[in-house]
Amino acid sequence: MKDTFSTRQFPNPPLRMKAGLSARWLFCVTAGTVLLVWCSVDAYLATGLKFLKTAERPPIEEYILRRNNLAKALVAEDVDAFVVEPGFTFSYYANITQPEWEVWEPEERPFVMIIRPERLSDGSVVANTSFLVPSFEETRARLLDMPFEEEIHTITYEEHWNYYTTLYESEIWGDTLSPVLMVDEEMRDFIQRGLSSNGFTVVGLGGEVEAVRQVKTEREIGILKAVNTGTVEAIRAMRTCLYPGVTENEVAAILDDTMRAAGLDPFFDIVEFGKSAALPHGGYDGSRKLEPGMFVLIDVGAHLYGYSSDVCRTFYPPFFSNPPPSKHNVTEQLDVWQIVLDAQSAAVNAMVPNATAASVDIAARSVIKAAGYGKYFTHRLGHSIGIKAHESPYLNKGNFGAVLRPGMVFTAEPGVYVLDKFGVRHEDVLVVREDGEAENISGGFAHGPWDP
Predict the structure, then answer these.
(1) What CATH number should be reported for the domain whose range is 215-440?
(2) Average pLDDT over residues 378-395
């Protein structure tokens, strides 16, 4: 159907329009696509959005806890301070992302947070935080309203000064002659070199300091549960509305609108039909049309309170009957669908405290290899997830150094990709628990090719 759509024809516009979001695309899409977004959003809202109940915006106490945990980890690693500039890690400890500091691009003037351990009179260790900031930006830094109970401590510099010498000569170091600073992958090279050339010893992220972000608090897990369950429920709602001829790009746009109906903020979509799904991360132009007998693979992520979802489902559309019509030979597809689910189950069973990251990957890989599809499982099993969709540690067959701890959160996403034929991937998000049974926090596992 090629008729264009005018919002004047419909008395009740979609929720996206009600929310004041851009709806210009609605004037130039097919009527079928308009009905799909309506159907999808309505089915999503019909769930009652109960998954949102586990999410709470982190209060100031959460950030204090994180910084104090970091301080204890610094002592354990014999490091004098952790230094970070605006980005994901800065956001984790002080709730400021890079665009919130410099919306246009990362700037050449360093603005860094320095977190040092301080031992109190009772022997406890807490975080003592300072900020290196340009003098003319000091007031703006204070207006960021970062999660601190008291006024932030700043170390300021003029434009013509050496930034790093200014920090080195600060009183915060006491008698320490060459402070050891730990940085992560987000610290830009020129800042690391500047610190190293002006009295500091700079080391990369590792040990207990890296583990602070890897082990999630129950509040973090609550947000991750909400956003990942909400993303899976959006896929399920949208699936019920699919029709022959809809394109991959149209489904991606509709899925985004569906998630926005719950207040989620989508940030990536991989929507692949049939042969397209043989490339795990896509690569085609999204114009393939949905036909009977095609698998639909959807891998999608959204944000809630700064935390990420990352889930995948592979399924048949509702207009493809179960059992399949005899004219469609989908036996191999159905077999592989179950093999991949069995591999995911093996990974979940292996995801226990003190297991290595490698052992979890190998558990899933062994199932797929035994079924004769080993060469078609072309990527690692999964990754940790938090304020970034992809965080360490990573579940790959060579990572024997990373040991699982209770509170770590991982994706388990085995897949089989047969070029020029089809692809299957199942991805859920799981928490490592003390009792040894990993908890699914993404709305439950897929049940079948018609019930994702």
Answers:
(1) 3.90.230.10
(2) 97
Rounded-to-10 torsion of CA 194, 195, 201, 205: -100
* Chain centre distance of CA 148: 26
In this predicted structure, the answer to whether residue 22 has a pLDDT above a threshold of 80 is no
Q: Under a CB-based contact definition with an 8 Å cutoff, are residues 198 and 181 in contact? A: no
CA distance 30 to 5: 7
CB-facing half-sphere around the CA of 323: CA atoms within 13 A: 4
**Cis bond upstream, residue 449 (ω within 30):** no
Residue 28: per-residue pLDDT: 35
For range 285-293, the mean pLDDT: 96
Please state which of the ranges 20-29, 87-96, 135-144, 370-379 shows the lowest mean pLDDT.
20-29
Which SS3 state, helix, strand or coil, does residue 77 take? coil
Q: Give the start-to-end residue ranges of the domains of the chain.
A: 60-214, 215-440
pTM here is 0.91
- Determine the Cα–Cα distance for residues 117 and 81; give it in Å rounded to an integer: 7
Domain 60-214 has CATH 3.40.350.10: yes
